[in-house]
Design brief:
With 360 residues, the protein is α/β, with parallel strands linked by helices. The strands form three sheets. A seven-stranded parallel beta sheet has the order 3-2-1-4-5-6-10, with helices on both faces. A three-stranded mixed beta sheet has the order 7-9-11. It has a two-stranded parallel ribbon with strand order 8-12. Helix content is 42%, strand content 16%. It is globular, with a radius of gyration of 20 Å. The longest helix is centred in the first third of the chain and has 23 residues. It has a single domain, classed as Rossmann fold, CATH 3.40.50. It comes from Hominiventricola filiformis. It catalyses: dTDP-alpha-D-glucose = dTDP-4-dehydro-6-deoxy-alpha-D-glucose + H2O. This is dTDP-glucose 4,6-dehydratase.
């Protein structure tokens, strides 16, 4: 049985990855989920798998080298998928220090623990071990409104404390391969969306606010462009890179779904109007009148666009979910999980875990 160590598995992308892996491999794998449970970590995301005999949750901080080393010493880890990160740009602008600590120091701790566990006396590494660092397209900086794209060879040019901290962890991982031939890969993904996404992010924020008739804030002119990737497509890509990726290589994972932010909001409003029955009183609340333009974010990148040519050519992955389909699936999920959204927006999920772990 192959054992996976997933960091940040109680977060949005991490929890979706865990669900994907159990759907695909079932009892053939074991997953150890390490998460410190910050505001973005929610074990409700994993209620369906928490009782699986081949699933283990460990509450630990990736910056705690003693705790992380202990996990490696007590388990024969085959794969590390390193999601854990502070990821919200606005929060990084207000408090860069926590981003540097988690995204840089935390990555260093993970690399050192895996290296110590996997390295042989001659400096080589045990077979069939691999570490995957999940990075972001934001490390590349910003594109203009032309036809250019981010490639794996695009120079780094991060513009926010968040993207700078992710670029640092990214380069540390690359340095471990270059220096030690440490068995690793790096993936840089575009904006993810789908189930379990924390509602400070654009798509769940718009869905939640629109259904309540609340303002829909739009930075600047709303014409900043992002490439949107359905989270299950991302999970599949990560699995394929882990199994087929050439050691030391970076792979861009993009959705071929470039949209302006204001376009995303209009699509969500139109889709809500289409999906809500006439009998639902929330349908009358969903309106373009809710759109509210606000002062632009500091250092706001104009456009991100990933070219996933390399991962398609070398590994055979391509995005399967176009935005029109993915947004309907996402909205339907939120319709079916209104209690989840209420618990997150009220903060009740945090109170529950604080009580659960206060004596541990």
């Amino acid at each position: 049985m192959r054992t996976y160590l997933v960091t940040g598995g109680a977060g949005f992308i991490g929890s979706n990855y865990i669900h994907y892996m159990f759907r695909k491999y079932g009892e053939e794998i074991r997953i150890i989920n390490v998460d410190v449970l910050t505001y973005a970590g929610n074990l409700e995301n994993l209620k369906d798998v928490e009782d699986y005999p081949n699933y283990t949750f460990v509450r630990a901080d990736i910056c705690d080298s003693e705790a992380i080393t202990k996990i490696f010493e007590e388990n024969d880890i085959d794969r590390v998928v390193h999601f854990a990160a502070e990821s919200h740009v606005d929060r990084s602008i207000k408090n860069p220090e926590v981003f540097v600590k988690t995204n840089v120091l935390g990555t260093l701790v993970m690399l050192n623990a895996a290296k110590a566990a996997w390295e042989l006396p001659d400096g080589s590494f045990k077979e069939n071990k691999k570490f995957l660092y999940v990075s972001t397209d934001e490390v590349y900086g910003s594109l203009d409104d032309g036809d250019n794209y981010f490639y794996e060879t695009t120079p780094f040019s991060p513009h926010s404390p968040y993207s700078a901290s992710k670029a640092s962890g990214d380069m540390l991982t690359k340095a471990y391969f270059d220096t030690y031939k440490f068995p690793c890969n790096i993936t840089s993904c575009s904006n993810n969306y789908g189930p379990y996404q924390f509602p400070e992010k654009l798509i769940p924020l718009v869905i939640n606010n629109a259904l309540q008739g609340k303002a829909l804030p739009v930075y600047g002119d709303g014409k900043n462009v992002r490439d949107w990737l359905y989270v299950d497509d991302h999970a599949k890509a990560i699995d394929m890179v882990q199994e087929k990726g050439k050691l030391g290589e970076r792979y861009n994972i993009g959705g071929h779904n470039e949209k302006q932010n204001i376009e995303i909001i209009h699509i969500i409003l139109d889709t809500l109007q289409e999906m809500l029955p006439d009998s639902d009183p929330r349908k009358a609340l969903v309106s373009e009148k809710l759109i509210t333009y606000v002062t632009d974010r500091k250092g706001h990148d104009r456009r991100y666009a990933i070219a996933p040519d390399k991962i398609k050519a070398e590994i055979g992955w391509y995005p399967e979910t176009m935005f029109a389909e993915g947004i309907k699936k996402t909205i339907q999920w939120f319709f079916e999980h209104e209690d989840w959204m209420k618990n997150v927006t009220s903060g009740d999920y945090q109170k529950y875990y604080e009580e659960m772990y206060k004596n541990k």
